[in-house]
Amino acid sequence: MKNKTNKKPSPNRIKCQISGEERMSNRKYIAAKADKAGVASAVWCSFYVNKASLIALKAEVEANGLDKAAEVYNVDKARVIKWLRYNGRGAFVAQKQAAATV
Predict the structure, then answer these.
(1) 67: which DSSP letter?
(2) 3 state SS of 23
(3) At 78, which helix (H) or strand (E)?
(4) Most CB within 10 Å of its CB: which of 54, 79, 80, 88?
(5) DSSP bridge pairs for 50
(6) Which of 59, 37, 47, 39 is nearest to 17 (CA)?
(7) What is the residue extent of each domain of the chain?
């Protein structure tokens, strides 16, 4: 059996920005997701988050808000918003509001 060691890495591998896990995809899938989000394929790939990490991120945002989620994941608030926008179904994630004192 031949062992090919000179294989090029596929440009269609996408990496979760939270967990670091990689998976194979195809060009059409990536292009469709990027087009739906209104960005280039490379930009969409740079904000890809897998399903398990997205569920955990949504739970964190719902429980503690965007600012605390950004602090927990050690990123800025804008990145958390893009993770949710590009990977979710576009649904609004409700945040727990602090009681306002007058």
Answers:
(1) H
(2) strand
(3) helix 77-87
(4) 80
(5) none
(6) 47
(7) 13-87
